[in-house]
Design a protein that fits this description.
The complex is a heterodimer of chains A (about 550) and B (about 220).
Chain A (H helix, E strand, L loop, with lengths): L25 H5 L4 H29 L10 H20 L2 H15 L7 H23 L13 H5 L4 H28 L12 H33 L12 H35 L6 H14 L15 H29 L8 H24 L1 H7 L3 H31 L5 H27 L14 H31 L41
Helix pairs in contact in A: 2-3, 2-4, 2-5, 4-7, 4-8, 4-14, 5-7, 7-8, 8-9, 8-10, 9-11, 9-12, 9-14, 10-11, 11-12, 12-14, 12-15, 14-15, 15-16
Chain B lengths: L14 H36 L1 H8 L4 H26 L3 H31 L19 E2 L2 E2 H39 L3 H31 L3
Antiparallel strand pairs in B: 1-2
Helix pairs in contact in B: 1-6, 2-5, 3-4, 3-6, 4-5, 5-6
Classes of the chains: A mainly alpha (about 550), B mainly alpha (about 220).
The structure holds protoporphyrin IX containing FE and copper (II) ion.
Amino acid sequence: MTRVVYSEGEDRHATPADYLSGGWSIRSWLLTVDHKRIAWLYAVSITLFFFFGSAAALLIRLELLTPAGDLLSAESYNRLFSLHGIVMVWFFLIPSIPATLGNFLLPMMVGARDMAFPKLNLLSWYIYTLGGIFTIVAVIAGGVDTGWTFYTPYSTLFSNSAVLAAAVGVFIVGFSSILTGLNFVVTTHTMRAPGMTWGRLPLFVWANYATALIMVLATPVLTVTLLLIGLERTLGIGIFDPALGGDPLLFQHLFWFYSHPAVYIMILPAMGVVSEIVACFSRNPIFGYTGMVLSIMAIALFGFIVWGHHMFVSGQSLYAGILFSFFTFLVAVPSAIKTLNWTATLFRGRISFDAPMIYALSFLELFTVGGLTGVFLAALALDVHLHDTYFVTAHFHYIMVGGAVTAYMGGLHFWWPKLTGRLYSRAWATTAALALLIGLNLTFYPQFLLGYAGMPRRYHSYPDEFSILQVLSTLGTGVLALGYLLPLIYLSWSLRRGEKAGPNPWDAKGLEWQTPSPPPVHNFRETPVVEEGPYAYQ
Amino acid sequence: MPTNKSRPAVQFDDMDQQRHAGLLGMWVFLLTETLLFGGLFAGFAILRLQHGAVFAEATGHLNLPLAAINTALLLTSGLTMALAELAAGARLRRATLRWLLATIALGTLFLGIKGFEWYSEFQRQLVPVLNLPFHYSSELPAASGEQPVAAVAELFFNLYFIATGLHALHMLVGLGILAAMLWLAHRWRRPDRIDRQLRIAGLYWAFIDVVWIFIFTCFYLLRA
Ligand code: HEM
Ligand SMILES: [Cu+2]
């Protein structure tokens, strides 16, 4: 039986107004508590930060075009890669998929009218913005030169740059992820529509749920660590200072206790997006749904016990190194299971190569390369050679840019008709997706070779023999830039001029497609009743 | 099911769902808080292992009797808070008010004693920050490993002030919440809502209790 619930004052015969019809006044956006509008607030802010961080990357790559350090001084180079890392990690990647697509879709996918705590949801965006302001202040005040990792004693005793302002920015933005995480966990637990059992949740919801748990459990450790860094820098409390009996390695332990799980905050939602796209465009149910769910939870769980793989050569004990190496191999298993299951989902599917699918297939290639090289790095002996070289840079860029950002683009293209009610140009989208795939491989593959040959990371000059590979990498950056700029243009264009999409242009399953595009204010006219699993294709 | 006259917020189907979400929200928030203090305690544990003798001796410079009284006060406030929740559950306005007031009084007393303790540490020149004079007398050999004993003692007191300071900050927030609840209970407009919110506030208050127990154990009791 259908349970019909109307919200206060709603007329059951009127066509419900869509969420954008509430107007375009500044007030209607800045004071909204609608999760769909908050998703847009986030989308605009993270896009700004993305282009900000990309500008820094572009300068880095231009400097590396020639062996001599000619474009930038060593000091400015340090500031640029620190800025790039801080902005991309905390102000783009961590919030990217959860705060935009997750915010928009999670309540719809579980069949709810909104998040459990709509006001906290808005608050989280304001906190994000405040953190962002501090980071920009740090840049204006001369930038940071510690790298995104804030290692002591650079960050406490030796750095003369605006470490404090930057650390405060990251400290603040942490609270926004905590609030987003809290909202996701509670929404998934308590707001599911009748019939939406745990076994019927789309993998996108599972992935965001696991991500939310990591946000709630890992972020506070970063918060307290940055608090200690701030106190150390201002008051000299000595916790990380050996002269007072403190322990600099303690900082690295605390930092990576957060930052390794944080890489799963970036990749798990991406995996969620890819699951939805792969199922829809091969018209097959996801192969091994239960295995996928267990893998998601295993990744989230094991992610907490592998942080020491960042410290193999930092002077932690050999036994610690062996254990961390073993656990790191272990965490690669569920990642591999997921990759194989996506591939199996494609098997005998009716595959169509629309733009979202091209992004998803690119993800499979890029994530596989990135993940496998992670396994190389987890081998103790090999890591002595590869640690702090471009090999590591290539590894995590394959996953974070190749995996997470590509999936974000794929998700954006998949749900764009739902978000806006409009279709975009298919030809342009295909071009952009292909540019992205080519650009990514061209930019980052040479970096594996560079690192393996001994090129260290974070240097602004290099010996002549690395020249060819460095030039290739910079060329790739150009192609990559095209892949990111094109969508900005044709997607904006489609906002006003694009063809009307209708509720379900991809003929996809999932509750979010059962409601008009753009969706009404409270998502559904009636609380839906769910009677089948999430991937009832065929 | 008994019909509930009050209306849930628009995103919820019924009051039960709303109550459940509120409580779960607080539980998840407390998970976050646990890891926040967890990071601090992990740091403490590692440094304690490295400098056992100095830390044990420095512990003796803190005021154990006052801290013990404070522990008793805070645990009692946990009881009065639970009684306030029960009273609100039974829709007894006066009893709710009375127990809430008692909780607030105990919490304030705790902070007062804590403030006095800090002040006496300041007088004994045991506050190592802001270029305040730091004088630490010790019977240990002059150095612990490679560092002078006084430097390591400084580290201990820094950790102590950070941990108790962070806890006091949480107490202040807790007292603010209780004050708001007191006002709501005084007006007694929607008892079911007061009941619901008091249970959420009670979880937070209990959490502050537990954190204090850990601080008490680590900083006051570990003397050997
Ligand atoms: C298949 C699973 C993975 C394995 C086995 C793995 C393994 C490793 C290892 C051993 C290192 C340390 C290398 C060194 O510094 O010498 C490392 C670094 C790194 N990994 Fe992964 N990784 C995996 C997945 C990921 C994912 C999913 C991300 C991001 C979304 C990621 C991001 C990073 C980053 C950012 C660093 C370098 C941090 C820095 O030093 O700045 N990894 N990885
Ligand atoms: Cu890691």
